[in-house]
Every structure is written in C-alpha cells, then in structure tokens.
Amino acid sequence: MPNMKQIADMAGVSLGTVSHVLNDTAHVREPLRKRVLEAVETLGYQPSQLARGLRRDKTNMLGMVIPDVTNPFFPAVVRGAEDIAFANGYRLVLCNTDNDHEKELAHLNELRTYLPSGLIVIPSSFSDLTVQAERYRRAGTAVVCIDRLPKRWNGDSVTVANEQGAYAATRHLIKIGHKRLAAITGPLHLTNAKQRLDGFYRALSESKLTVAPEYLHETTFERAGGYTKARLILKLLPPPTAIFAGNDMIALGVIQAIRELGLHCPKDVSVMGFDDLDFAELISPSLSSVSQSGYQLGATAARILMDRLNGDDGPPKHLVLETQLKIRDSVAPLKGKV
What we know:
6-stranded parallel β-sheet; elongated; 6-stranded mixed β-sheet; alpha/beta; 12 strands
C-alpha cells in the first residue's frame, strides 16, 4: 500500500507538509496542497484510521453490540444508527453476541483496542455490563444503552414505552370481550420483557381480571419459543381466547401452533404481538402488534453520541420513544364465548 513518504516524493514536498494536508493540522500554501492531493489520488492512498486514532486517542469508529443479528427487529436499529453515524463522518463496527453474556464481554473487551469514539449497546443480560460500559466512559468513549438496560445503569439510554404499549394492547383485547387471556413473555431478566408483562398485568388489574400461572409462560424472543409455549397453553382447559406475545417472533410461533393444533386465528384464539415487524402485514392472518420504530431507536442513540462527541457534557439522557397499537386480522371480538 502507498505511504506518506511516497506521496511526499511524488509531490516534491516534505513529509511534514503531507501530514499537515492530510490531517488539516496547519495551513499549507495552495500550490503545495494541490500537489499533495494529486499525489494522493494518483497513488490511491488511504489513511490508516487506527494510526490516526493512536495519535488522537480515538478513531472515527463507533461500536455497536446487538444480541441477535437474525432477529428481524435489530437490522432496522442498526440501519438507524449507521445512517446517522455515516452522515457525521463516523463508521459503525457491528458485533453480534447471540444473547451470550460471555461473548458480549469478549466483544466489549476487543472493541476497546479499536479506540472507538462511541459505543451503542443492546445488552444480552445484566451481569457486569455496567462495569464494562463505565470503563469505556472513563476512557472518554461515549456510551448509550438502548432497548434493554443493565442493572444500575445511569448513563445515556434510549428505550420505548414497553409498559404502556403492552397495556394498550391488552386493554384492547379486554375491551372487545376477551377475559380469558394468556401471555408468553420474553426473558424476564430483560427490562423490556418485564415492562411488557407489567403492562399486561396493569390492564388485567384495572378490569379486575386475574390470570392463572399456567396461562403465563416465559421463553426466548424467538419463534421456536413462542411455538413451544403456545402448544402447552392451547391444550389447557379451558383454553385462552387471546394470547399476548412478548414480541412478533413469539407471536409468529403462536400462530404456527394454533394452525398445527387444528384451530383458527382469530376465530378460536386472537393473537397480539409487539414490534410490528415488516412481516406482520404479510402473514395470514396479518398480525396485530404494538408498533415501535427500530430505526428511530438506533438513530436516536447515534444522535446522542454525536451530541456527546461534539462537547455535550450535560446530565445523562433517558429518552423513551412512543409506541402505537396496530390492529389487524389476528385479533377479533369475542363472540358467544365465556
């Protein structure tokens, strides 16, 4: 690869002049600057971001750690963050943890060697992550936790109104006649799963309804988990008339289980999801869901990082994005059942 000395030789200038032009660290007369830039273009020189980072203590990279790259929700989150980063001259480095805390710690330790200017994290679990994030912050790297929050995290965060969204969804099911409800949640050690269950409970409590423990199941935020738990719930006597799923992937598994057991959604069982992923409108029946914008989640986090990198040293920001209930064909009023 071409280096700065070759540029200096081709342009007939000193190595220092090349450095000043490339790093904009001092004024260089226009004829010399033009010769340097022409040599850069001719040689196809690309500056080493890591070398720049070593000189400045930071690179123009932002790290982003997500729990499951195969979950359709997260690509939109990444896209939102990447769009804002790119528009501001930063590049995004993506790490996938597979919801494995040990893998998450390995990524966080490795990323530090790249000297990122900022870090966006969707935690896989709670243990020790706050300690890791604080190390980044003490080193001068801005950190934003999004979607799920670690225990004791008091830094910048962006979440959605999980509890309110789940409350609105459950309230709608009750309003159209459903009294025998079930819920399949994500892992309850995650703040977003716990908040959604809290919203489910709040709606039941306001309507003076109760739910037996066997109608509540915890699983992963994946289709297979929703499918397995739904098969258990649907064999109960009496079966539920509606199921609130902790996310759309769980809901997809629920609908699969309903179909395989010879039942019909929503005639026999209504299903409500959370996320409003792209496939929600495409499957049959189309999925009712609590809509949240993954793109805005990522973009908002990246904007906070940009503010911090531009000198904002104010108190921690805790932004909560609103949700919207989308009613489609998977939910119908209860008719003639008790």
